[in-house]
Write a structure and sequence with these properties.
mainly beta, 7 strands, five-stranded mixed β-sheet, two-stranded antiparallel sheet
Length: about 130
């Protein structure tokens, strides 16, 4: 079991990356893309998150339609993990499954319900030019 990186995305467009320890990462094992997670799991009381994606330890993106925690080689036309500029062209690509497992390194989460404590520090987000007086 390794540490898990969480990328928390706010609907306004801001993101924050945090790293959680092994004890907290065990609660994510077995969850799928599209599942909701309570904020108490990552010490953010009142928050609620939606799992939107992620990647494994080798950088392969997770796909919702692969119902597994392992990597698969798929013949794809488009979508997650595919870049092509020819319409209809099929490409064989390796992707990670949509279930969080031991090989998952990063999980992308979207904030669906905010808590009392602000997640983003407004003073730290301001550009350096605005801080000077």
């Amino acid at each position: 079991m390794v540490k898990l990186k969480l990328v928390l995305g706010d609907p306004s467009g801001k993101t924050k990356q945090i790293e959680i320890e092994e004890a907290n990462s065990k609660s994510f094992m077995g969850l799928k893309i599209g599942d909701t997670v309570k904020g108490e799991v990552v010490d953010m009381a009142g928050y609620e998150f939606l799992i939107t994606g992620g990647s494994d330890n080798a950088g392969f993106p997770m796909r919702r339609d692969v119902v597994s925690a392992n990597r698969k080689k798929l013949l794809l036309v488009g979508g997650i993990g595919v870049r092509t500029n020819e319409p209809g062209r099929r490409i064989r690509k390796t992707v990670a499954g949509g279930i969080i497992g031991a090989n998952t390194a990063q999980v992308n989460l979207k904030i669906t319900k905010s808590g009392k404590k602000p997640l983003f520090d407004e003073a730290a987000a301001a550009p350096a030019a605005e801080k000077k007086e």
